[in-house]
Design goal:
Strand 5 and strand 6 form a beta hairpin. Helix 1 crosses helix 2 and helix 2 runs parallel beside helix 3. Strands 3-2-1-4-7-13-14 form a 7-stranded mixed β-sheet, with helices on both faces. It is of the alpha/beta class. The protein has 6 helices and 14 strands. It is 26% helix and 26% strand. The protein has 2 domains: 133 residues, Rossmann fold (3-Layer(aba) Sandwich), CATH 3.40.50.1360; 71 residues, 2-Layer Sandwich (Alpha-Beta Plaits), CATH 3.30.70.260. It is globular and about 55 Å long.
């Protein structure tokens, strides 16, 4: 899948946004094989992917080029029937949303199991540490059940932006776009793991090793 995606969407002299996690890592490894890779500039959303890109010999663009991103590759935690997404399982939701909102083309690569009729997993909400208790209270008032994301030894998970994440379960989300705006309106919320911009192409990985390309 990664090889097909790179061959279809990456061209010389482009600026490429890289999401986080295994999806982006596979894309980076394929980009390493491009003969024009030295003319391509990348903007990674996490240190993990930046390290992968450095190993692959890729070049980088700074944040001043975000508005010029030609294509961004990323994964998703869940994708509903209307192609809304939940992202942020790896903690890079803020940076991922900045790239996705700016890119000319968005390509999502995900296992078939990530495509669901309706959301059934918590929504990651990135929160400034000072607002931990106040945001948690507001989320409960909105019908959510927030849980502070922690590491294996119990320490709070801290994003690369210095924030915490409250993984929040809601009984149902009828209108994801409206919910995204309402949650972002809470003081102290830095970003919400609801992504309501439909991608241009979805690579659906099937259990038998094949894949399908879906375009909304």
């Amino acid at each position: 899948m990664a090889k097909d995606a790179v061959s279809r969407f990456v061209r010389a002299n482009q600026i490429v946004g890289l999401g986080s996690g295994s999806t982006a890592a596979h894309i980076v490894r394929e980009m390493a094989n491009l003969k024009d890779k030295n003319s391509i500039l990348c903007i990674p959303t996490s240190l993990q992917i930046k390290v992968e890109a450095e190993k692959a010999g890729l070049q980088f663009a700074d944040e001043g080029h975000i508005s010029d991103v030609d294509v961004v590759f990323d994964g998703a935690d869940q994708i509903d029937a209307k192609f809304n997404m939940i992202k942020g399982g790896g903690g890079a939701l803020l940076r991922e949303k900045i790239l996705i909102s700016s890119a000319k083309t968005v390509v999502i690569v995900a296992d078939q199991s990530k495509f669901v009729k309706s959301f059934s997993r918590p929504i990651p909400i990135e929160v400034h540490p000072m607002a931990r208790t106040s945001v948690a209270k507001k989320l409960k008032e909105a019908g959510g059940s927030p849980v502070l994301r922690t590491l294996d030894k119990g320490y709070p998970f801290i994003t690369e932006n210095g924030n915490i994440i409250l993984d929040t379960v809601f009984s149902s989300i009828i209108d994801p776009k409206k919910a995204e705006l309402e949650l972002k309106g809470i003081a102290g919320v830095m970003e919400v793991g609801l992504f309501c911009r439909a991608a241009d192409s979805y690579y659906v990985a099937k259990e038998d090793g094949t894949f399908e390309i879906v375009r909304p």
